[in-house]
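Journal club side-thread
Mid-discussion, someone asked how the predicted structure for our own chain would compare to the paper's figures. Pasting it here so we can look after the session.
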Amino acid sequence: MKKQGKAIAMISGGLDSTLALAMVRAQGVEVKAINFYTGFCITETQRRKGGRQDGTMPQNEALRAAADLEIEIEYIDISGQQYLDMVLNPKYGYGANANPCVDCRIFMMKKAKEVMEREGADFIFTGEVLGQRPKSQRRDTLWAIEKESGLKGRLVRPLSAKLLPPSIPEQEGILDRARLGDISGRGRTRQIAMAGELGLADWPQPAGGCCFLTDESFSRKFFDILGQREAAGEPRTIDRDDVVLMTTGRHFRISPTVKLIVGRTEVENGTLETYAGATRARLAARSHTGPVALVEGVATWEERLLAARILARYGKGKDQPTVEIEWRDPDGGVETLVVEPERDEARVEQLRI
């Protein structure tokens, strides 16, 4: 008789992880799903900040998929300093941007292993496909992730299982290898066909592009802030507040040690208000309606004027001869700067991060 088993599913809510979940459940395996919040998740960050710039509220696809498939899911926050330290010092390096994909997967798998042991489960599985991603889903990196996470033989990729060595659950009879997949590469034709075969008529869209660290614009801000701190003689580190601010507003590098962040929406203005004070100056127009801005670093008089001019450019007074900008220092000191809105678009773009 086929041995019964229990598994932990790492799901994103995309097509691949949903298919993997359906394949394993079809073999009579009890499944509990988990999903991780890293602090760099685009959708969840938008949700926590009140929605997208267009006012719409995205949904968490992993939670939706679990609800649709009627399985238990545990949502785990791993966005603390231990995760951030890994992002800063990845053993396997970065991808095209600031994405330490291999190290990130190892970190997640170690956390998943803790859940597996706590739940008394037999294995963990994911929706990973051999060769689908150039850095984290090569044969060698899939093996490195399995080995370094302590899950040798206990980490299953159902969609590509026939192209990989037999796992312990297959050897123990928990999974029938003949009913697992042999998919590889970046195409999704076979996955779409499988969705139909498994009766998944309303499967969620693939969840690619869900991490800020893979975004070129965000990555510029990420490496810029590290450069700023090195220039100021500060430790090369970031914290959760830095991550929130990197996802908020327009960023301008005024000097090697001074940065300006200008809000784009009411939601972002509210976020910037929250982070003004202790180490950041707050700027806002007094004479006209406009955005809120923060300045990080100790600005010279010339840098203050430049920051004020850029801020004035994005308010209702942008076409006026002058705008009054209130500058509030971290220590509470307040002064009013009367400036002409910056009209040199090329200069503004040159300063934009």
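Post-session note: Residues 101-119 form the longest helix (19 residues).
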